[in-house]
Structures are given as C-alpha cells and as structure tokens.
Amino acid sequence: MNRRLTCLILSILFLSLSCQQEKKGVASANKPVKQQKTSPAKEQEEKPKRISPEDIIIKKELLYNKYTLEDNYPYKDTTRGFQWDKIKERLAFVENFQQTPSLYAVLQNYQNEKGEAPTIQDYKRDSYKRVSDSFNVERYQAAPLYDINTSKAVRYGRDGWLVRIQGPDTLAKIPIEGISFEGKYTVPKRYLRIISDTVQFKIINVVDVKNQNICTLEKVGNEWLVRSMNPVTSGRHKPPHAQETPTGLFVVQEHKSKMFYYEDGTKTYAGFAPYATRFTAGAYLHGVPVNNPKGSIIEYSESLGTTPKSHMCVRNASSHAQFVYKRSKDLASLVIVID
After folding, report:
1. CA angle 146–150–152, rounded 5-degree value
2. Tens-place pLDDT, residues 53-78
3. Positive or negative CA dihedral for 282, 283, 286, 288?
4. The CATH classification of domain 105-195, taken from the options 2.30.30, 1.10.10, 2.30.29, 1.10.3470
C-alpha cells in the first residue's frame, strides 16, 4: 500500500513540473524579442572644414621696422602695393593642405647633385637653349616625375617643390602627390628629402615679383601676423645667365651666411651675397650683393623695390635678409612667390 501511494505522489509531482515547464516555454515564445542593435559600420571620418581666403585673418605686428612699405605706395607714375587678397588665397591653401596629416617630402636636385634627370619624350628647348617640359620647368636642377601607369618620365619637378608621400618610402620609385603642383607621379627616391610628418609651416615669406616687395608672416593661434613689409628686386629674364624668379610654393632648404657667386660664364668668384636663404635651385633670399669676395656687407641699395635685376635670387636690404635668415628654418618654412 505504501509503495503504491509513493508511486502515485511521484507521478503527480512529475506531471506538475512538466506543466510548469510547458507554461514557461509558451511564455517565452509569446514574449516580444528585443531587437539587438546592430553595430553600425564605422562612420567615415568627418572632413575638416575647408578654409576660404575670407577665413584668413591677417594682422600687422611688425618685428622688423626698417624700410617698411605701406599697403599701397607710389612708384614712378603709378602705384604699387601688397596683394593681400592673393596672399590670403595662398595662406588658405597652406592651411587646407596641412589639415590632412601627411608625410611630406621636398624635391631636391641642386646643381644636379642627385644626377641629371632623363630627357622626357616631348621636351622643348627654352630661350636659354635648355631642355624643359611643357610647364616651362627646365631639366637642369630638376627631379624627374614618372607616370604612375607607364613608368615613363613625363615632366620635371622643380627643386624645392613640396610633395605628399603616397606609399612606402622604401621603394626605388616612391609614389607622390604634388602640393606645389597638381598630379600624382612616382619619383626616384634619391630626389626626395623626407620631412617629418609633425612639421607645421608657420613661417612664410611671400615675394611679389610684380610689385617687387616681400612680406614675412607668422601663424600665431588663428591669425597670420605680418612681421615685415619690405622692398626687393627679383630675377630678370636675360639669357644666357640671368633668369626670372619662378613663381610657386617652395620649401626653405639651405642657409649660407655668405653665398659666393661667379662672374658670368666663369669659375672666378666675383663677390658674395650675405644671409642667403635658398628655396629653389640657385634662387636665394639674400642681402645686397657685394662685388668683392673680401668686401664688407652693404646694408641697402636704392635699386631695391624697382625692377628685376638679379640672376634668379631675391635681393633684400641686408639686415632684412638677416631677419629672414634667422627666422626661416630649413624644411619647416616656406617661400611663396606670386605675380
């Protein structure tokens, strides 16, 4: 009897537990399922706001006060001045390209020290009888730029032009994108000087070959401060020796306290220019030339601010050249030449 009673009790308990499990199952089935949030695809990084010339703030806080020019000033029977609107365009360009973190490099081939660039297929000879490309860039002192698809040299890159590295810098030919010029090419590694990716170009010297003046600027906070406004003379077109100062954006590459120069067509020293800051090929920002290798520095020349007179360089008052020389660091400051 006890045994039957025990079996009956166990059977009832078993049936009770089974019903409870079934109810739980039904409840779970009827319970609304919470939709899991699918992890969104990685959002594209927001592009930095493009800076326009109107966003550029220029203020005058001069640190060099000699021979200072006004915004507009008389010259003979006309008026010259500083092209601030054009300068703002260039400064906006500089700020915009620096918003994208990049590994920069400078094209270099001063006096063909990296090797003469190959002759491109559609070359021409300029008024100096030198091989040049369709952009009027001479082969002499230039770096060859190769087409990415055909691996053929198609144009020349000026010494001092700034580029952005676009691939591994260990290749024999490194892919680059122009900043001083447009387009993507490859360049043999020996023609490239890599610049730290942390560099910020905050010191800029703007040369105006049309008005024969220079202003130096420094980025402080969100403002560009004008540090000097001075007269200069630039390079003139006079084959076979004197050449115009090329326009464009260049990186400061070298400093010489005295830049000695030859008599035209010889290897005989004719004199020197003090406080020389090189930015492209044989073009320097420098002081008044001294036509005696052992002579003393000359401070000023009445020809400054008149007409182009040099061989490619930009002549300044010697104390202003020294001011530029001290403030413009190699591979960390720019020279922009406008017309």
Report:
1. 40
2. 999 999 999 999 999 999 999 999 99
3. positive
4. 2.30.30
